[in-house]
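The protein record filed below.
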Amino acid sequence: MNQLLGVSSDGEDLLSLALHIEEGLPVEAIDHLVAIVAPGNISLKYRFLPKPTLARRKKSAKKILTSEEGNKLARVAKVMRFALEIYGDIEKARTFLMKPHIMLGNRIPLEIVLATGPGADSVINILGRAAYGGGV
């Protein structure tokens, strides 16, 4: 997940990511993840931070996200990483995240992931079903 966020680390373990989030992920992690998940969708980055707040953060001395903002970003990265593992193709993973899904009440998986942690868990469960023959 660290790679999806553009964060360098010694490993891809969750503890490393947790420490990065606690210290404050760099604001650039938003642009990095959005370029992978939905290239060309400029408005997606404002789902993580409102436009004025993002502009202020980019101009600030520290240029970091709060832990709450970092958690939201990590949620999306976690789901995207799992979708990439399941589909083995970035375009198929993107399509899954952007297309309404019947098992989510015809809501868009990415919207569910952005809303809450349990929503992200629901999307991961659907992906898991696909991985183990339960269908998507």
Summary: The chain has a mean pLDDT of 90. The two ends are 23 Å apart (CA to CA). Residues 14-131 form one domain.
